[in-house]
Write a structure and sequence with these properties.
Elements (H helix, E strand, L loop, with lengths): L2 H25 L9 E11 L6 E12 L6 E3 L6 E4 L4 E5 L2 E5 L5 E2 L5 E2 L23 E3 L4 E4 L2 E5 L3 E2 L5 E4 L3 E4 L4 E2 L4 E4 L1 E3 L5 H38 L2
Antiparallel strand pairs: 1-2, 3-17, 4-16, 5-6, 7-8, 9-10, 10-11, 12-15, 13-14
Amino acid sequence: MDNTGYIAITRQSSLLKELNSVANNVANMSTPGFKREGVVFSEHVEALDVAEGSISLATAGAYYVDLTQGSLKQTNGQFDLAIEGPGFFQIDTPEGLRLTRSGSFSLNAEGQIVTMDGRALLGDGGGPIVTPQGVSDFSIAADGTISADGDPIGRVGLVDVAPETLRREGANLFSTTGALGPAPDGRVLQGFVEGSNVNPVQEISRLVEVQRAYELSQSFLEQEDERIMKTVQTMGETR
């Protein structure tokens, strides 16, 4: 394959990654706590064996998570929590510790505060938060302190981490390769949930733009293939 074909295929492969990323953002516009994902492109330049000649390839090398604050929606749910400012909730999963901004929690049969799929919310000590039996009045302060009938029983463990170390797992969970630190500027709001930070107009416009660029690249490949075939046929006829 010649350089033109390599460049076109590399561009198409990168556009496909961005198309999938943008489509995932659009699909999660209404998912509580969802954080928009973007693609980082890099350019590789190599000199050619001609005077002042070079070739460059652009590739989608990595993803990043946009941690812009989403809108806060009041639900008045006793265990609906939103984080205002930086920070993540810690969630215990079979795969290990995971982070999330989605704060729709409830109580399970054992009195633990859990996510909608039954995974335990962890306190600042690293263990599940267990509520006393028979208590129905819970309040959660801005610093994450949980009180049952006025008596403190635990504290929601908010942590912060470098954005570039986050790896998305599903719509709302993240793993991290970085060190966890405190989130002193994060506030816990009881009775609220954080919405998705996806801007519908911008993201759908970007989806259309990337899709058109992908189709244009596909058309170029087809034209290039046709050009090569005609060249081969012409050379065969002149022999």
